[in-house]
Amino acid sequence: MNKLKPSPANSCPLSPINFLERAAIIYGDCTSIVYNNTTYTWSQTYNRCRRVSSSIASLGIKKGCVVSVFAPNIPSMYELQFAIPMAGYVINNINTRLDARTVTVLLCHSESQLVFVDSQFSSVLLEAISMFPGNMRPPTIVLINDEEDHFDSHMEIITYKLMVENGNPEFNCVQPTNEWDPMTLNYTSGTTSSPKGVVHSYRSIFIITFDSLINWSVPKQAVYLWTLPMFHSNGWSYTWGMAAVGGTNVCLRKIDARVVYEAISRHNVTHMCGAPVILNMLANYPAANPVKNPVHFLTGGAPPPAVVVLRTESLGFVVSHGYGLTEVAGVVVSCAWKMKWNAFPAGERARLKARQGVRTLGLTEADVVDPTSGVSVKRDGLTMGEIVLRGGCLMMGYLKNPDATSKCMRENGWLYTGDVGVMHPDGYLEIKDRSKDIIITGGENVSSVEVESVLYSNPVVNEAAVVARPDEYWGETPCAFLSLKEGVRPKPKEGEMIEFCRAKLPHYMVPKTVVFVAELPKTATGKVQKVALREIAYKMGSMASASRM
User: Fold this and answer.
1) What percent of the chain has pLDDT over 90?
2) Interatomic CA distance for residues 355 and 422, integer angstroms
3) Domains of the chain with CATH codes
4) Phi-psi region of 306 (alpha: psi -120 to 50; beta: other; left: phi over 0)
5) Distances in Å between the alpha carbon of 46 and those of 17, 227, 459?
6) Is 299 helix (H, G, I), strand (E, B) or coil?
7) 101, 145, 102, 106: which is closest to 122 by C-alpha?
8) pLDDT tens, 262-276?
9) Are 167 and 181 in contact (CB under 8 A)?
10) Residue 148 predicted with pLDDT over 60
11) What angle, 0 to 180 degrees and rounded to 10, lies between the N-to-C axes of helices 306-314 and 346-353?
């Protein structure tokens, strides 16, 4: 049998863009996209994507170049996740909360040839282009929503509407010649002096899309509400996944609790994703009523505090917790639920759900290792190490950054995530912190996540974030930033919150400083910007004169 070899019939490149044509055949008359009063079917979406693809191809851009999108979760944003690769280009979604200077850096670094921009962000894009170096040709602009008055008259402007109207509905999709061809480019958060552009192949995106659907048990014709930005790892692959199952994409330009609850009720939403901050927003909405039918909510990023999981599930949401990062294009570790756990008390169920869990089917291995020796840590739920991954959904590497790529994807065959975790005796993994967020006080490691979980259990706390504050005696100590729930009167004192923690935590883990804020600073994907909080804590200075507990 070893004489048998691959043939053209069985070695076609894997590609998720083919899901769209299949959806048009099977679910052609079914709703694909809903946005305000606009509704499309899968046949219409396929037709529109082919038209846009043909219009992009007619511009004469060399195949394999980068085409960027700067837009919120609107129908055109969804369509472009297919239309750009269908024309043979690499899609680059730009975070809509970035400033003009950062957008300039990313467009220059990626050498983007074309930018689709929603009119809401056109002024930011124009400012970004005005800062282009003289030796670089700015990308061509395609304006979404046709509000051309936002642009200088001397600039060449194309509109998305005209691309759809003038495009060829019979355009033949450009298939990848190799499944290792690059398909997506997404930039991670961090300094713009050395941007980290994560490149994924058609192969890795195909694998993670299938994996995400199976892992979350997404049924055919699910109704998916877009509370997760599509620019965040292409919506954790559910942009293509919804086409695979013929689901309905309910698009939202802006996220707030009232709009989300209205959309759930109006469209009978079955699934949605988002950072824990979205869970918190839904749980603390004063006018919230339990949803009529169960809504499956997949959350990732920082572990959701058990108390937030309990609040949200009491409103009818079925919360699943997963772990992933841009470098793996979606969720690759999830808290696979065991039926026997349903008999556990609510608090214990919530605690178990806050764990990240086990690798998904599409990932080959996940482990927690000593970052220096590479040896697996004890499976005791206490010994911390770095989370490492390997599998077919991993990125190809960082664009134009071989040093960062080799540092992350090491010769021993693992991707080092920079996340600190533990492995429990039952084989379930749990994140404890980002390595940069671990607080070392008096030689003891403090997980900011554990301290935050305790703070969230206080009934007056809306949001909590804990960072290190310099201390001449201890080196550094925990500093808590808190926002309070609406209507809390009187405002608690710093000492009250410290005493609350002291009753529930070892003394070295108790925050020595508590700062009350109106709202915690966040990234566009809902993650708390701990970098900004650390700067504030650093400026507050040392606590040498504070109580040495």
Assistant:
1) 70
2) 10
3) 42-201 (3.40.50.12780), 255-435 (3.40.50.12780), 438-540 (3.30.300.30)
4) alpha
5) 11, 23, 49
6) strand
7) 145
8) 999 999 999 999 988
9) no
10) no
11) 110
Cβ–Cβ under 8 Å, residues 360 and 398: no
Segment 300-310 shows an average pLDDT of: 77
At a CB cut-off of 8 Å and minimum separation 6, what does 279 contact? 297, 299, 304, 308, 309, 312, 317, 319
What is the 3-state composition of the chain as percent helix, strand, coil, each rounded to the nearest 5? 35, 25, 40
Please spell the DSSP secondary structure of 157-171, one letter per residue: EEEHHHHHHHS-TTP
Residue in this structure with the two tokens 């940069």, named with its chain if needed: 436
Q: Which two tokens stand for residue 535?
A: 């700067």
| 51-92 per-position pLDDT tens digit | 999 999 999 999 999 999 999 999 999 999 999 999 999 999
In 3D, which of 342, 273, 327, 261 has the Cα closest to residue 304?
A: 273
Closest by CA to 447, choosing from 381, 499, 498, 388, is: 381
Task: Give the least confident one: 140-149, 266-275, 409-418.
Answer: 140-149
Specify the pTM.
0.84
Dihedrals phi, psi of 35, to nearest 5 degrees: -150, 110
Q: How many CB atoms lie within 10 A of CB 179?
A: 18
C-alpha to C-alpha distance for 311 and 196, rounded to whole angstroms:
37
Q: What DSSP state is assigned to residue 194?
A: S
As given in the structure block, the two tokens for residue 470 are: 């310099």
User: If residue 287 lies in a helix (H) or strand (E), which one and from where to where?
Assistant: none
3-state secondary structure of 326: helix
The pairing of strands 90-93 and 114-118 is: unpaired
**DSSP secondary structure letter of residue 337:** P
Enumerate the H helices of 284-333 as residue ranges.
306-314
Give the C-alpha distances (Å, rounded to integers) separating 124 from 40, 99, 355, 467, 484: 30, 7, 39, 31, 33
> Residue 15 and residue 178: Cα distance in Å, rounded?
10
Report which DSSP code applies to 93.
E
Rounded Cα gap, residues 269 and 247, in angstroms:
11
User: Can you read off the two tokens belonging to residue 444?
Assistant: 């003891």
* 455 membership: H or E segment, kind and range: helix 448-456
Burial class for 450, CB neighbours closer than 10 Å (0-12, 13-18, 19+)? middle
C-alpha 459/C-alpha 101 separation (Å) is 41
**What are the tens digits of pLDDT across the range 79-136?**
999 999 999 999 999 988 888 888 999 999 999 999 999 999 999 999 999 999 988 9
Residue in 450, 448, 459 with CA at minimum distance from that of residue 284: 459
Lowest mean pLDDT among 190-204, 244-258, 465-479, 500-514: 190-204
Query: In whole angstroms, what separates CA 405 from the centre of its chain?
Result: 20
What's CA 322's distance to the chain center, in Å? 11
Residue 201, SS3 per DSSP: strand
Q: How far apart are CA 120 and CA 144, in angstroms?
A: 9
